[in-house]
């Protein structure tokens, strides 16, 4: 096995073990490979091991990789901060956008999604642990945003995305509670199936709390070198 294959196998085993501990089926947690700062050759190598879903944070970097890897059937996820003036490329090129936290962003993505394409999958980002950040809506805003966003035509609102501060595992349980509360009230619960939470350092706690998609970079590709990005 080459190195990336070994790392992916280890991460998949860790997911499986976390699922067992939580008495969950292993196929209820998807692995999103977070490839920011890594060159397209690394993504290609990871693809060969069977990985299909890749997450990127920076638009231009992602667009360059999409071009270099256009022969592969990658499912592209945007997991970075969504800037209002960058929604067009997100709407056109990605399968998923995880960082939606305002109605105006969702409206732009819906308007800019080609009606011929399948709907753009969306996760609503929530600032679940009251961090001092502009990213993520407040938990109290979620119900209304879900109501509004689920009426937009070219989007499919799939669930919530959170990035809690390290050493704050309770936040995963709070996110799960919010996720379930929306599911119980929402008019179209069949689309509401994704709780995007857990990274290399905290995937066990996230899976124990109910994550359905872990976003893993370092444990799959090794440490990031931002000086080359
Ligand atoms: C970079 C990043 C990750 C991956 O983090 P690792 O600790 O390297 O696994 C996950 N989610 C988001 C939103 C990120 O920006």
TrEMBL record:
It holds the Pfam family Ala_racemase_N. The modification N6-(pyridoxal phosphate)lysine is found at residue 36. The keyword Ribosomal protein does not apply. One of its GO terms (molecular function) is pyridoxal phosphate binding. Transmembrane segments: none annotated. The lineage of its organism: Bacteria, Pseudomonadati, Pseudomonadota, Gammaproteobacteria, Moraxellales. Belongs to the pyridoxal phosphate-binding protein YggS/PROSC family. Residues 14-224 form the Alanine racemase N-terminal domain. Keywords: Pyridoxal phosphate. It comes from the Bacteria. It comes from Acinetobacter towneri. This is Pyridoxal phosphate homeostasis protein. InterPro entries: Ala_racemase_N, PLP-binding_barrel, PyrdxlP_homeostasis. Pyridoxal 5'-phosphate (PLP)-binding protein, which is involved in PLP homeostasis. Its cofactor is pyridoxal 5'-phosphate.
């Amino acid at each position: 096995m080459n190195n990336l294959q070994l790392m992916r196998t280890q991460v998949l085993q860790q997911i499986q073990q976390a699922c067992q501990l939580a008495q969950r089926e292993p196929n209820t947690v998807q692995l999103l490979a977070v490839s920011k700062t890594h060159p397209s050759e690394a993504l290609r190598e990871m693809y060969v091991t069977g990985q299909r879903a890749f997450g990127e944070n920076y638009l231009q970097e992602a667009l360059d990789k999409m071009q270099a890897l256009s022969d592969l059937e990658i499912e592209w996820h945007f997991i970075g901060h969504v800037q209002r003036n960058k929604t067009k490329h997100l709407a056109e090129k990605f399968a998923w956008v995880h960082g939606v936290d305002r109605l105006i962003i969702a409206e732009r993505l819906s308007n800019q999604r080609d009606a011929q394409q399948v709907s753009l999958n969306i996760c609503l980002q929530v600032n679940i642990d009251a961090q001092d950040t502009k990213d993520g809506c407040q938990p109290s805003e979620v119900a209304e945003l879900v109501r509004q966003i689920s009426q937009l035509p070219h989007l499919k609102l799939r669930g919530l995305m959170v990035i809690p501060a390290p050493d704050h595992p309770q936040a995963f349980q709070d996110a799960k509670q919010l996720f379930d509360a929306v599911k119980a009230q929402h008019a179209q619960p069949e689309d509401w199936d994704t709780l995007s939470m857990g990274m290399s350092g905290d995937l066990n706690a996230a899976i124990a709390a109910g994550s359905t998609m872990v976003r893993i970079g370092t444990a799959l590709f090794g440490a990031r070198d931002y000086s080359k990005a």
